[in-house]
């Protein structure tokens, strides 16, 4: 019996007259499009189907007990992730605003934790933005409500680099200024832009 799993959950699927693995993949992709979803990973019989081997695997005939595992993402998943990131960036903005005071009261470890959280959040944001680009008609990933992402990160990167240097040199004045006047407002901008996605 042919098995289907979507994001780890077993699902019942009625096949019509699909003969090859490719027929099933095409039909599944069409269903995803109709339901505002996109396929981001395919495994057939335990073998991950990459772009390089897709054509070879797609031409293989369907077996009686072929196992399909799909990873999918939906527009709603992305909207929810953007909402969570918006709240997270707001929270981080407040932490950055508090850096000067935290440093003055010797809470350097707390400041380091905030920076790590900030770096992880930016990584996560970039991952979600990449997934959002699978739905160009819903998400304009070039700009976030008027904020051009390339320019935003081009501006932001040197600031984070300066911040890292100030952290290594234990330059608390520079750390405080960068946190409060450079990083905090940018985080607020991106949080507001994400809220409207």
> Per DSSP, what share of the residues sits in E-state strands of 2 or more residues?
5-15%
C-alpha-based Rg, rounded: 22 Å
Q: How much is the average pLDDT? A: 90
Terminal CA distance: 42 Å
Order of adjacent strands in the largest pleated sheet: 2-1-5-3-4
How much helix, percentage-wise, in residues? 55-70%
- The number of helices is 7
What is the string of SSEs from the N terminus onward?
Answer: EEHEEHEHHHEEHH
Query: How many E-type strands?
Result: 7
**What overall geometry do the principal axes of the alpha carbons give?**
elongated
Unreliable residue stretches:
none
Structural class given helices, strands, pairing?
alpha+beta
Largest sheet properties? 5 strands, mixed
Written description of the protein model:
The protein has 197 residues and is an alpha+beta fold. 59% of the residues lie in helices and 15% in strands. It contains 7 helices and 7 strands. It has helices at residues 21-34, 54-58, 75-97, 99-104, 108-132, 149-168, 172-195, and strands at 3-6, 9-11, 37-44, 47-48, 67-74, 143-144, 147-148. The strands form 2 sheets. A 5-stranded mixed β-sheet has the order 2-1-5-3-4. A hairpin with a 2-residue loop joins strand 6 (143-144) and strand 7 (147-148). The radius of gyration is 22 Å and the shape is elongated. The two termini are 42 Å apart. The mean pLDDT is 90.
């Amino acid at each position: 019996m042919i098995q289907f799993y979507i994001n780890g959950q077993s699902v019942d699927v009625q096949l019509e007259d699909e003969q090859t693995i490719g027929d099933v993949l095409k039909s599944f992709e069409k269903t995803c499009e109709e339901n505002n979803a996109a396929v981001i990973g395919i495994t057939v019989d335990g073998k991950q189907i990459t772009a390089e081997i897709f054509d070879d695997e797609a031409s293989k005939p369907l077996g009686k007990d072929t196992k399909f595992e799909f990873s999918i993402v939906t527009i709603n998943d992305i909207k929810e992730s953007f909402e969570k990131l918006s709240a997270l960036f707001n929270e981080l903005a407040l932490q950055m605003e508090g850096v000067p005071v935290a440093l003055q009261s010797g809470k350097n470890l707390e400041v380091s934790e905030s920076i790590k959280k900030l770096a992880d959040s930016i990584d996560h944001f970039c991952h979600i933005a990449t997934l959002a680009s699978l739905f160009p008609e819903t998400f304009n990933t070039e700009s976030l409500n008027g904020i051009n992402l390339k320019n935003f990160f081009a501006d932001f990167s040197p600031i984070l680099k300066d911040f890292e240097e100030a952290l290594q040199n234990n330059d608390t004045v520079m750390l405080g200024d960068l946190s409060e006047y450079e990083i905090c407002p940018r985080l607020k901008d991106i949080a507001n832009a994400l809220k409207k996605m």
